[in-house]
Write a structure and sequence with these properties.
The complex is a heterodimer of chains A (308) and B (152). Chain A is 12% helix and 46% strand. Chain A is built from 4 helices and 12 strands. In chain A, strands 1-2-3-4-5-6-7-8-9-10-11-12 form a 12-stranded antiparallel β-barrel. The radius of gyration of chain A is 19 Å and the shape is globular. The termini of chain A are far apart. Chain B has a domain of 106 residues: Cytochrome Bc1 Complex, Chain D, domain 2 (Orthogonal Bundle), CATH 1.10.760.10. Chain B is built from 7 helices and no strands. In chain B, α3 crosses α7 and α6 crosses α7. The chains are: A mainly beta (308), B mainly alpha (152). At the A-B interface, β2, β3, β4 and α4 of A face α1, α3 and α7 of B.
């Protein structure tokens, strides 16, 4: 696997448009928009109930290296623009792509995600409603969620064949989360529907637990303070569909994860994932980099002559 | 089968951006620095008001709270908590006379409909550190310097 990763990086001199876009936007934002310190969870698939701060823009880039039995390993990636519209509504736009080794690099689609906080105050369990529209082709391998009967063997074909299938999907999640004595526990049941009438509703889940390495902050500003590191673990998988609900012919993953929140506004995430049954990929290595910018909304309004 | 063209996608995105910015505008207008914003302090449950700060008297808590305030709160409430574009002054008498438990509860639950997010994602000791810093500030109009000045 390590040799394949090295080969992938070595041959990836011509970055994809998604990767270039992420770099350009990050540079633009870093130059013109004030940065904000982030306190991000380490989860890559699971969501807790915390939304983006109003007016802030977070730009994220994630990579997933994955193994493929009966086919070529791959590197899937997405760029994510997360905007806090209000204190109870966060909206996100994703651009997805993937490179399959010894095959090709393809753009696989976009997603528009919205999260709505349902209760104003903190409660024992805090629900957030998640609604996402996805337009993606069959070559999509980012594994941002696993649902229905998604299994490894579905992706053994070459990209040219997989990308012929175009899907419009609606995905609903109920994000349930609680933070207690520094521990965050999150449970996300999900239901997804291919908008083509012949497809049934598909179901899945993601659960996660995480905790900062220190609960008290140090008095000095520091990159390596223990409170800047949040460690956790997440588990996610499919639960079949409306015709055959259950664990039969589904895939599941267990993934330890760590996030490093730097005072400069950058967050780095790393998460090795392990398939839990024969339908799952054996190994996934995910990493992400993100930066949060404050006051993005008011700057855009000013640009168009509005009140800051 | 739904077919979405590039043009349709672009229009949808522009509309989304407009709605987002419009909503954010509503949020900001709700957070004007009028007196009514401080009425939220009076809505805190009595039991929460009575909570004591476990870090009271800890000088490190003030310094750490100042750091956390600069990282997470100054964007809205101003670098020295004097009030900013979106958030009210935290040096106002209403805030300075509030109990530590009141400030902790507001920090934990936010004032979501007025644009202040919940901050329970910060561990409880860090929220108390921020409360320690806020209570160390010299109230507006008293002319003194702020007590916590480790970072600035």
């Amino acid at each position: 696997m390590a040799a394949r990763l090295r080969k992938m990086w070595a041959t990836n001199k011509h970055n994809t448009p998604i990767q270039r876009l992420a770099v350009y936007v990050l540079l633009f934002a870093a130059l013109f928009i004030r940065r904000a310190a982030a306190q991000e969870s380490p989860y890559i698939v699971t969501y807790d109930h915390y939304l983006e701060e109003p007016g802030n823009l977070e730009i994220e880039y994630f990579s997933t290296f994955g193994t493929q039995r009966g086919g070529n390993d791959f590197h899937a990636f997405w760029t994510e623009f997360e905007y806090g519209a209000t204190a109870w509504w966060t909206t996100e736009f994703y651009l997805d792509g993937q490179s399959t080794f010894n095959d090709s690099t393809v753009f696989t689609g976009f997603r528009w995600e919205n999260r709505f906080r349902l209760l104003q105050l903190e409660h024992f369990i805090n629900p957030v409603l998640y609604i996402e529209y996805e337009q993606k082709n069959g070559a999509d391998k980012i594994l941002k969620e696993v649902e229905g009967h998604d299994v490894e063997s579905d992706y053994a074909e070459r990209n040219a064949s997989l990308r012929k299938e175009l899907n419009h999907e609606l995905e609903l999640k109920l994000l349930l989360s609680k933070t207690f004595k520094g521990w965050n526990l999150a449970v996300n049941p999900l239901a997804g529907k291919n908008l083509s009438p012949s497809h049934p509703w598909e179901f899945g889940y993601a659960v996660g637990a995480s905790r900062p390495l220190a609960l008290k902050a140090a008095a000095n500003r520091c990159n390596f303070c223990r409170e800047n590191f949040i460690a956790g673990v997440e588990m996610y998988g499919g639960l079949g569909d409306a015709h055959s609900f259950g664990l039969y012919d589904t895939s599941h993953y267990l993934a330890p994860a760590v996030a490093w929140n730097l005072p400069s506004g950058w967050t780095l995430r790393l998460s090795p994932g392990f398939g839990l049954n024969d339908n799952s990929r054996r190994f996934l290595l995910r990493c992400g980099i993100s930066h949060e910018f404050s006051g993005f909304g008011s700057r855009i309004r000013r640009l168009f002559g509005g009140r800051p | 089968m739904i077919m979405i063209t590039k043009a349709t996608s672009t229009i949808v995105m522009v509309l989304v951006l407009g709605v987002c910015l419009g909503s954010a505008q509503i949020d900001n207008s709700g957070a004007k620095k009028d007196g009514s914003i401080y009425a939220e302090l009076g809505k805190v449950p009595k039991k929460a008001m009575a909570r004591r700060n476990p870090l009271e008297g800890d000088p490190e808590a003030v310094a750490a709270g100042e750091k956390l305030f600069a990282m997470h709160c100054a964007e809205c409430h101003g670098d020295t908590a004097e009030g900013g574009r979106k958030g009210p002054s935290l040096r106002a008498d209403q805030v300075q006379q509030a109990t530590p438990g009141t400030l902790f509860w507001i920090l934990t639950n936010g004032v979501v409909r007025r644009g202040m997010p919940v901050w329970s994602k910060l561990p409880e000791p860090q929220r108390w550190q921020i409360v320690s810093y806020l209570k160390s500030l010299v109230p507006a109009g008293s002319g003194g310097a702020q007590a916590g000045s480790v970072l600035r």
